[in-house]
Amino acid sequence: MQNAEPVRALVLAGGGAKGSYQIGVWRALQELGWQPAIITGASVGTLNGCMFTLDKAREAEELWRSLEIHDVLEIPETPSAEERNRFLLDVIRRGGLDVEPLAERLDDLIDEEAVRRAPIRFGLVMTELSTMRSVQCPIEEIPPGRLKDYMLASSACFPALRPREIDGVKYIDGGWRDNMPLRLAADMGATELLGVDIDGIGIVRPNNTGLPTRILRSHWDLGPTLDFDPARAARNIALGYFDTMRLFGRCGGTAYAILPDQDGFLARFAETYQLRLAEVNARAPGIDRVERSARQRAGYPPPFAPNPSAPTRGALAPLELAAERLRVPEDLPYTPKLLAATFMGSFDKDPADRFPALLSGKDSSLVAERAMAAAVPEEFVTALVSAALAEMPLV
């Protein structure tokens, strides 16, 4: 007897302007052929999820690439001091900012009847203000003609935004009580879950569904919750795309999207780096613990983590950490050699120059440099990577 096909659900968390990341996730999933039968969302995840349900990914991406704060919230563009004070008093008196511009956008983008007919089932969560109870809303339980109200309620990030009143009851952002509605997806019949966490405000409940679950999170800061900016949106879309491709094994790395290593550069780098680290550890015993501390603090794996992708990710980790330290752009794909070359071209003053005693034994400041490395281990790793790459041909 053949196993039944999984009922896949995409679960989109809330996070305001960070929601652009989910556009890149969806684009990658479509390329990979991973099609959900169910989409659930909280807050901005509700808005993105509804667009995906309607097969409006292109329109959603165009929206995010042009979206500015005035397209979402009703705020004065260039207020005088008097107008600003009057505006702030009105915001306090009314209990938050007005999202009427967003409501008008929904009128143009969301066809409720089409959502109800769509092959992907849609659901959202919102929070009842008076009780702070999470309200789970599959599309079938949303009264006809009220989808827009429910979406705006799910997105009402109180106290910054005004509560949404539905039939005399005030509701606020679904993320306040359930920012990653995995349980709703399970209750709607999902047997496999993919969650997209964008570090929004609210509560992410423990996953007690018992279902196979994968969670996507960015290594990078996706920006402020209410800072809608087209340039940041474009960057976050790229990050969502690459992170999804990494989750499905189409690229490597931890923070950067690393393409296949065609010429064995990564193995040569790993060997050179480990030799340099051993040399430094001979001069300053225990410096290897500083190196491990830098990886842990920055969220990178150890050199030999016990999982199938560990040798590659572990070898890449110091190079990625150093690239991050020197702000090598994170929204582009790299081969290991290209990332190394980009890193080496990103500074005027060599990071290795900060640690001449540790790296070369050139002077008597070993104790001071050892203390500096312990205080800022990421700088030490960056210097060590630079010293290792200086011994290797990059062209």
Automatic annotation (TrEMBL):
Family annotation (Pfam families): Patatin
Keywords from the UniProt entry: Hydrolase, Lipid degradation, Lipid metabolism
InterPro entries: Acyl_Trfase/lysoPLipase, NTE, PNPLA_dom
Motif segment (GXGXXG): 14-19
Domain PNPLA, chain residue ranges per copy: 10-186
Positions occupied by motif GXSXG: 41-45
Keyword Lipid metabolism included in the entry's annotation: yes
CDD domains: Pat_hypo_Ecoli_Z1214_like (cd07209)
Positions annotated as active site in the UniProt record: S43, D173
Record GO biological process: lipid catabolic process
Name of the protein described by the UniProt record: Patatin-like phospholipase family protein
Species for this entry: Candidatus Gemmiger avistercoris
Lineage, broadest ranks: Bacteria, Bacillati, Bacillota, Clostridia, Eubacteriales
